[in-house]
């Protein structure tokens, strides 16, 4: 079966070029839809349920990270692969933290892009060679690596992070309260605060959010 792909980029001519290139990849990839904005992307992903979303990083209304923030909690089975002209570390880390499975630049050949799409659909993480080091520095705690800022995580207090970490590990509110020597009411207050700051709606989404940031 072919991998069903959804294209997200605000340049229609670029989308047309990518579609034409992918249509030539031996029938292994089927482009099922495309979008030029965050809103169109989220609606299209929900309607078509593609296997892989090929995602531009920079768009006028929020870009790839915003698409991931809105779509990934709703459609966890969909895999996202960033495709961007940018090879800046902050762009790479932002979309990987948001949940993209890989990041390749627009200098990639059609054949290599096809391989990257198939690989992420099978569960692999794929990066253009120069970009893999950024991800290792950010996520592997290498000595001397420059810290990567996560604005959403930085909003949480140390105690809120403690509560979130235990919540993501499956602890009940009463168990969290016992572990941290606080009341259940205080735990509930911290959880409500974390939900508000992260703009998430339930414990399941919080657990995924914490796991993505390696808090668990």
Attribute tags:
216 residues, six-stranded parallel β-sheet, 6 strands, 11 helices, Arc Repressor Mutant, subunit A, Rossmann fold, 2 domains, alpha/beta, 13% strand
Beginning-to-end CA distance, first to last residue:
35 Å
Question: What is the CATH class designation of the largest domain?
Answer: Alpha Beta
Q: Based on DSSP secondary structure assignment, what is the total number of beta strands?
A: 6
> Please, what is the average pLDDT?
85
The value of Rg in angstroms is 19 Å
CATH superfamily of the largest domain: Response regulator
Largest sheet, spatial ordering of strands = 2-1-3-4-5-6
Strand content: 5-15%
SSE topology string: EHEHEHEHEHEHHHHHH
Helix content: 40-55%
Compute the number of helices: 11
CATH topology of the largest domain: Rossmann fold
CATH second-level architecture of the largest domain: 3-Layer(aba) Sandwich
Number of domains: 2
Based on Cα principal axes, name the global outline.
elongated
Largest sheet: 6 strands, parallel
What class do helices, strands and sheet pairing give? alpha/beta
Low-confidence segments, ≥5 residues, pLDDT <50? 142-149
Protein name: DNA-binding response regulator
InterPro entries: CheY-like_superfamily (IPR011006), NreC/VraR/RcsB-like_REC (IPR058245), Sig_transdc_resp-reg_C-effctor (IPR016032), Sig_transdc_resp-reg_receiver (IPR001789), Tscrpt_reg_LuxR_C (IPR000792), WalR-like (IPR039420)
GO biological process, one term: regulation of DNA-templated transcription
GO molecular function: DNA binding
């Amino acid at each position: 079966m072919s991998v069903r792909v959804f294209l997200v980029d605000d340049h229609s001519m670029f989308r047309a070029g990518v579609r034409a290139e992918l249509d030539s990849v031996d029938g292994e990839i089927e482009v099922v839809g495309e979008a030029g904005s965050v809103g169109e992307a989220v609606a299209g992903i929900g309607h078509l349920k593609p296997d892989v979303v090929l995602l531009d990083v920079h768009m006028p209304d929020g870009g790839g990270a915003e698409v991931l923030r809105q779509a990934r909690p709703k459609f966890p089975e969909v895999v996202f692969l960033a495709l961007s002209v940018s090879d800046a570390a902050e762009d790479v880390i932002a979309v990987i933290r948001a949940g993209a499975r890989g990041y390749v630049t627009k200098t990639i050949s059609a054949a290599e892009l096809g391989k990257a799409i198939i690989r992420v659909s099978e569960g692999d993480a794929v990066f253009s060679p120069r970009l893999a080091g950024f991800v290792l520095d950010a996520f592997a705690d290498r000595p001397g690596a420059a810290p990567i800022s996560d604005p959403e995580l930085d909003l949480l207090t140390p105690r809120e992070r403690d509560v979130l970490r235990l919540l993501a590990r499956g602890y009940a509110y009463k168990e969290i309260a016992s572990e941290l020597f606080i009341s259940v009411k205080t735990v509930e207050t911290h959880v409500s605060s974390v939900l508000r700051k992260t703009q998430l709606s339930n414990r399941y989404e919080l657990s995924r959010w914490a796991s993505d940031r390696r808090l668990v």
